[in-house]
Design brief:
single chain; alpha/beta; Rossmann fold; 5-stranded parallel beta sheet; CheY-like_superfamily; Bact_response_regulator
Length: 131
């Protein structure tokens, strides 16, 4: 069976390592990390993604612009997008809603809660297909 693919757009290596550790706990799931918006665009143009996780502060693009850019690059509208940010909950909620994210998670991440939420999003999302 093809693994579910989570794309995490995150330029901070420590945050990326934490997410790698969390995703490793989900059987049949693989994490792809993009350090920039441009790298994320290349990934979604080349392979199917089942869930998008996106940091707000990236070196080349504002994270709140990324869902639109990635959808233009081939990410299907059915793929859920979650904003992952160190902003306060109130700010994150507004940013997520305004930018077209389906949800938001505030850093520092609670590992157990993140694992549950990842599982729920991946279970609810349709399987990604190529083309």
């Amino acid at each position: 069976m093809t693994p579910r693919v989570v794309l995490y757009v995150e330029d901070d290596a420590v945050n990326a390592l934490l997410m790698e550790g969390i995703v490793e706990l989900l059987p049949g799931t693989r994490l792809r990390v993009a350090r920039t918006g441009a790298e994320a665009q290349r990934i979604v143009a080349a392979e199917p993604v089942d869930l998008l996780l996106c940091d707000l502060r990236l070196p080349d693009v504002a994270g709140d612009q990324l869902p639109t850019l990635l959808r233009q690059a081939g990410l299907p509208a059915t793929v859920p997008a979650v904003l992952v940010t160190a902003e306060s909950e109130c700010v994150a909620a507004d940013l997520a809603r305004d930018a077209g994210f389906d949800a938001f998670w505030c850093k520092p991440l609670d590992v157990a809660a993140t694992l549950r939420s990842l599982s729920e999003w991946l279970h609810a999302a349709p399987r990604a297909t190529v083309g």
